[in-house]
Amino acid sequence: MKFFVDSADLEQITLLNDIGLADGVTTNPSIIAKSGRDFKQVIAEICAIVDGPVSAEVIATEAEKMIAEGRELRKIANNICVKLPLTMDGLKACKTLSSEEIPTNVTLCFSANQALLAAKCGATFISPFIGRLDDITQDGIELIEDIRMIYDNYGFETEILAASIRNVNHIKECALVGADVITSPPDVIRKLAEHPLTEQGLAGFMKDWATTGQSIL
Ligand code: G3P
């Protein structure tokens, strides 16, 4: 399973990339606004850090303008992936950009039928938002399972990019049901390494080692 970092924080992206935990990056207009940075500039800097796909989202809501924005964003770097909303206009833009071999990430997916449409329109990635479904008492992981089954039934190559990850259990459950990719805030990725028994065990080892008076180096 690939790990994408859902952030425009260059420090956090670099840190995770250096240890092989940033197979790509996703952004959205809210993340860019939070960064306080110039959109194209910050995206270019992220593209220079990671080798994998960097999702940059269009702002237009009408297909022709989305296509123009997508082509413009793609000029920033060759690892740009154009993020498009799951609307009929977004699907039309997806079809056109995909036919030009521009990678696409269709976002704001909340149903299996929406995911089916994105695959039929040639999306590289589909982004189901699991946390936002959980927020309204629907089951986000069940949606990932449904999309996995539909894509496997028909051999669609669109990758399932589980988004709106809120906690470490989301990541485990995504791995169990076969999401191709998760995109997560950096702090949730770091939390995957944490366990109280690991901390407790290490403290015990260090205490006992100190009594030996030895050193390795
Ligand atoms: O990738 C989409 C993601 O950023 C949405 O997350 O937490 O705003 O639902 P959230």
Explain this structure.
This protein has 217 residues and is of the alpha/beta class. The protein has one domain (2-210): TIM Barrel (Alpha-Beta Barrel). The protein has helices at residues 10-18, 29-35, 39-49, 63-74, 88-99, 112-120, 130-135, 140-154, 168-177, 186-191, 196-210; strands at residues 2-6, 24-26, 54-57, 80-85, 104-109, 125-128, 159-162, 181-184. An eight-stranded parallel beta barrel has the order 1-2-3-4-5-6-7-8, surrounded by five helices. The two termini are 37 Å apart. It binds SN-glycerol-3-phosphate (G3P). SN-glycerol-3-phosphate is lined by residues 6, 26, 28, 127, 129, 131-132, 163-164, 183.
**What share of the residues lie within helices?**
40-55%
CATH superfamily membership: Aldolase class I
The oligomeric state of the chains shown is single chain
- How far apart the termini lie comes to 37 Å
Computed structural class: alpha/beta
CATH class: Alpha Beta
Summarize the structure.
This protein is of the alpha/beta class and 217 residues long.
Architecture blueprint of SSEs:
Blueprint: E1 2-6, H1 10-18, E2 24-26, H2 29-35, H3 39-49, E3 54-57, H4 63-74, E4 80-85, H5 88-99, E5 104-109, H6 112-120, E6 125-128, H7 130-135, H8 140-154, E7 159-162, H9 168-177, E8 181-184, H10 186-191, H11 196-210
Parallel strand pairs: 1-2, 1-8, 2-3, 3-4, 4-5, 5-6, 6-7, 7-8
Characteristics:
single chain; alpha/beta; TIM Barrel; 17% strand; globular; binds SN-glycerol-3-phosphate
